[in-house]
Amino acid sequence: MYIKRTKGRTLLCLLFHIYLTDAFYLPGLAPVTFCTEKSMKSEDCEAYIPVFVNSLDSVKSALSYEYSSFNFCTKPEDETPVETFGQTIFGDGAHIQKSSYEIDFGKDENCKNLCQKIYSNNDLVSRKKLDFLKRGILMNFEHNWIIDNMPVTWCYEVEGDQKYCSPSFPIGCYVTAEGKAKDACVINAEFSQKDTYYIFNYVEITIAYHSGEKEEWGSSLGNSAGRLISAKLEPRSIKHNAGKTGEATCSGAPVLGVAGTNNDITFNYTYSIRFRENNNVRWSSRWDYILDSMPHTNILWFSIMNSLLVVCFLSGGLGVIICKDLKRYSQIDSTDSDQRELSGKFVPGSYRLVQGDVFRPPRMAMFLSVLLGNGVQIFFMALITLVFASLGFLSPANRGALKTCPIILYVCLSGPAGYFSSRIYKMMGGEKWKSNAILTATVCQGIVFAIYFLLNLVQWSLGATTEFRMLATLLISWFGACVPLTFVGAYFGFRKAPIKQPVTTSKIPRDIPNHPWKRFFTKPIPSIILGGFLPFSCIFILQFFILNSIWNHQVYYTFGFLLIVFIILVIMCLQNTIILCYLHLRAEDYHWWWRSFLTSGFTAAYLFIYCIYYFVSRLEIIGGVSTLLYFGYTFIVVFVFFLLTGSIGFFACFWFVRKIYRINPETVEENKESINEDKEIMDGLAPVNYCAEESDTCKTNIPVFVNRLDSVETVLPYEYTSFDFCANAVDETPVENLGQVVFGQRIHKSPYQISFAKDEKCKNLCQKKYSGQETKNKLDFLKKNIMKNYQHHWIIDNMPVTWCYEVEGDQKYCSPGFPIGCYVTAEGKAKDACVINAEFSQKDTYYIFNHVEITIAYHSGEKEEWGSSLGATSAGRLISAKLEPRSIKHNAGKTGEAACSGAPVLGVAGTNNDITFNYTYSVTFKDDPNIKWSSRWDYILDSMPHTNIQWFSIMNSLVIVLFLSGMVAMIMLRTLHKDIARYNQMDNSDDAQEEFGWKLVHGDVFRPPRKGMVLSVFLGNGVQIFFMALITLVFACLGFLSPANRGSLMTCALVLYVCLGTPAGYISSRIYKMMGGEKWKSNVILTSILCPGIVFAVFFILNLVLWIKGSSGAIPFGTLVALLALWFGVSVPLTFVGAYFGFKKRKRPIEHPVRTNQIPRQIPDQTFYTKPIPGIVMGGVLPFGCIFIQLFFILNSIWSHQIYYMFGFLFLVFIILIVTCSQATILLCYFHLCAEDYHWWWRSFLTSGFTAVYLFIYCIYYFVSRLEISGGVSTLLYFGYTFIMVFVFFLLTGSIGFFACFWFVTKIYSVVKVD
Question: What span is annotated as the signal peptide, if there is one (predicted)?
Fold first, then answer.
């Protein structure tokens, strides 16, 4: 069965573009130097020139065939280069095969025989092969050959004297039964016999090359060498002269014709080669002769000018009509009489009548938000792809790059799709965010995939097209990466407050008046049809060339024009939709949501009509299958274009509507408040206004949330509900982010009821009675944790409720937690909080803090803009919540303040299990106008006097950096400079024998190390961790990861780690390939699984321990599954993508400046400090010296539950750590090379990585000297989590040291002359 391959392509398959400068040498596109076998002196040049054959296609069919489908000459073993994802999916250029043509550089060939083909009428198989070849000739199928990553071209004259160079040439031509020459038969009068197929079985290939004369790269080559700049051929049909060989076989031979009914024929495939030197064309300009043969530039400039004129016309109309009308509107009063006068009239200012309905949610809001999310995804995908293409990063020589790039971008941009879709849906009042996320991730993609799959089924019925594994890869990318990222974006979008509209929506919808048909542009259908016309007029000229490149197989390279037209299209859709939207609002029609999307989206309908016209008038496609394929792929393109243009129009109209109603005088005050809020705080952390009487602008009830309870004496945290405290009948739990769940934070709504400005005195919350065995366990659990000093963590208005008390001197420390009680030992020693009150004195007694006095301070808004809009006498924003915990044995029979006044403390004897007591609370409000809402965290942070010692830490680190920098500078500028100068002056062999120092090991310094696979895996993961830490710290320094946004720091780090799988795979594969590794699949599997697997295994074991102990720190099973899904569904596929690009065959391994000797050099005996272990141990001292002070505060925040907020200091220390690791490793590496020890690969990694060992030692010291942790479980948990932290730090610092040393070694050996 013949193998067919479709050439159904999208408009994104615009392959050919080049930057004609030396900067074209992108990775994987480096020039190849060829030379004759006699002149080969090194591996810098190649003698054999391979010829690759691509799929065959035709302008008369939408089907394409592999080269091996025809009975051409093929190699016994099919050598297929690595194909990109885009090539395989789109079926264009897929399955490139190595041909049997043999070309040696500089060696001409004359009529060299390739193979012989015999067709017999008696042989059914050969008859079918010949019939298939005839059918291919009749359909004008063409070869696509590649030499040195350049298309082999067939140049012929077209209209006038113009010459067109086609990247393909026909397999033959046909003369009809009426004697009409078709296709290529018109070029030769010998093709004249009726009903005859002429087979092009002979090609004359002319290869031009640049010899390197007057070029730097040519100075190192000898004669008979160069770089190829073109490969052209002339196809011919020859009936070879029998009994002759060489040139005589082809000389004077007649054409080879096969009659339509004849199936008995024998002929040969032959070829000739001609080499010619051409030093006038540089290698970087070798595509010019192809591109210059396409005279498109003038008409493209005409297209741009035409589009700009339309844009200028629309811009003028937009400015004159709308700005003028808005100016008039501001002069109109808002009285009822004015509104009645404007009603039903199409006049300026009438749009104000629908301000109560303009933001009324539309029908099918979820479906609209889904389309908008996908439209945003496509917009950014198209924009980034076009920018990359215009900058030359998607080179035509890198086949499939332009197709692979959009697919990867589309998958990676699923997060924004989910985010925008959920934000729009929530703004429209939607609540089913999970359904919204599922539809966003599946509906549009499902439509495209279903059509794509059906088209593949059609081709499967005829043969085979896209392989099943490629369809499986698409599905894995869709459900494994696209869907999870969409859910992540939807989660973050839906958890934020909905977008606030500038006007309030009325309860009763307004009737829309009827307008006469002379204002047809205000009717829905005519306006939608009109809306797409002008945007399409800007693109239709360029559309012609795009369709030509897809269906007529022409080279498309003008991506600069395409980017300009794309920008013009965006502007046109914006302006056109805004004008029509404004006209509808003037007509009092407020149904703009769907109409704005469909108005600009209707551009896709014009695109479809144009594609029909192009099919009828320009294409020669025949056959039902080809027609079905054409319109199937066209529908996919049109649907994608519909989502793109529709989304552009919607967001333009959305911005415009919000803008014009924001300037409404009736909403100015409300907007001022909104603007001030935006300036004051970050999105998602907006201030809440409270007042004594609830209204639309403020709240009365102040909820109190309770977080997990923890202790400095144990690592096990517990949920609030694990204790027998007062709880709500129905547990209300806010939505928690991934970071909160991983850190074990469990937030619940408490039963404490607080109303703004309403003081409470000893208000009863609940009563607890303990008697009998069932309650004994609860009381024992409470006692045990009082002894361990467990502490509450409460939250009011997204602020921690603090307990402020005096510490050393007069300094006051405000803790974000307060104890559940305290204990006095059997010896009478007061522990923990019992020291604050002399009444806590009874031996072996547990004192329960069952009463809290809460003091809430607020800013009333006096002299603030936001305060003027509240209007209430008792209103404001909360700026602090402080409490004092007390132990009270309430006075029996009394209520209110009398129940607590003068009451003794509540003590429970160690052996007593029968007790009854109440939980109570008091609330006091006070106005404090001196503190602004945006500064309300200051009193907590100011109570932590760390600033001075932090500056001392920075200065200490800088001294170390300066010391190291001086050492490195001395070596680089003095010693190393002298070494290089001395080595480069050694011209004779006697001097060479006297070499010493690091030059002696130049033949071994780049010898691959042992365990290169493991090292490359560690380096890939180290790079992933490095960028994760760097980006997270930058975000934290900029204030995006606020302490008020709990769990955001860990969430950010986890998401970044998952999304940075691609750099990990790329770096790991590049290093591994440089070391000579070939098992790239094993490399990428280890990169994506080994290090994360170690961390996950330790984490899972620790989680099992927490599960057994019933701690809230145990991660739920669902979250573990989510983490595994992120790992295997997103991180692993992205790692494979990075590894593929790093290891693919076209991308050469990193080249070293010196060659490696075959026999390893013996390493002499080393002094103490140049031996491996002492050098590694010394290497980590200085980097650790830069961080140990900062490390103390980080460990305090983790294990002593203090707030860490000094990310600016941490970022500086991180930069200093990078510099110190780099410099220390370079210093020790230089000393080792001078000692003729060239084993620097692993040593450079371990030298700076040993900093992690010092970190572990410091953590042991911190555990022994600073912590009060007791118990085997807590100790296990402490060292388990410490091991994870140390292991991650080891990968980070080790990678920094390795790449610093790698750069240093490459640099010094690249500037020294080596024979």
Answer: 1-23
H helices of 989-1116, in order, are 989-993, 1012-1037, 1048-1059, 1061-1074, 1080-1109
pLDDT at position 417 is: 92
Mean pLDDT of 1253-1268: 90
Q: In a 3-state reduction of DSSP, which class is residue 252? A: coil
Q: How many CB atoms lie within 10 A of CB 634?
A: 22
Which DSSP state fits 696? S
DSSP reduced 3-state for 182 = coil
In the numeric block, the tokens 């007390």 are attached to: 886
How far apart are the C-alpha atoms of 672 and 103, rounded to whole Å? 76
- Inter-CA distances, 1144 with 406, 1070, 1080, 1088, 1140, Å: 19, 10, 9, 18, 6
Cβ contacts of residue 61 below 8 Å, gap of 6+? 139, 141, 621, 622, 623, 626
**Adjacent-strand bridge partners of 766:** 919
Strand partners, 172: 199
Edge-to-edge strands, sheet with 791-792:
714-718, 709-711, 791-792, 818-819
DSSP 377-431: HHHHHHHHHHHHHHTT-S-TTSTTHHHHHHHHHHHHTHHHHHHHHHHHHHHTT--
pLDDT band, very low/low/confident/very high, at 1282 (cuts 50, 70, 90): very high
Contacts of residue 839, Cβ cutoff 8 Å, sequence gap at least 6: 904, 905
- List pLDDT tens digits, range 239-269: 887 777 777 778 778 888 888 777 778 888 9
Dist. CA 121–CA 685, nearest whole Å: 83
How confident is residue 337, by pLDDT bands cut at 50, 70 and 90?
very low
Kindly give, in sequence order, each residue whose CB lies less than 8 Å from that of residue 843, ignoring residues fewer than 6 positions away.
824, 825, 826, 827, 828
Separation of alpha carbons 566 and 572, rounded Å: 10
Angle formed at CA 169 by CA 165 and CA 173, multiple of 5 degrees: 130
Segment 413-470, tens digit of pLDDT: 888 999 999 989 988 888 888 888 899 999 999 999 889 888 888 877 765 445 566 7
> Which residue type does 1271 have?
G
Q: Which parts of 764-880 fold into alpha helices (H)?
A: 772-787, 865-868
- The values of phi and psi at residue 273, to 5°, are -125, 135
Record the pTM: 0.55
CA–CA dist 1049, 1197 (Å, integer): 13
Of 960, 945, 954, 1027, nearest in space to 1196 by CA: 945
Residue that is written with structure tokens 């990676």 in the block: 412
Among residues 1090, 1289, 1099, 1291, the alpha carbon closest in space to that of 1190 is found at 1289
CB of 559 closer than 8 Å to CB of 14 = yes
Identify the residue whose tokens are 């750099």: 1063
814 beta partners: 804
Say if CB 264 and CB 121 are below 8 A apart: yes
What gap in Å lies between CA 13 and CA 394, rounded to an integer? 11
Nearest to 420 by CA among 492, 493, 491: 493
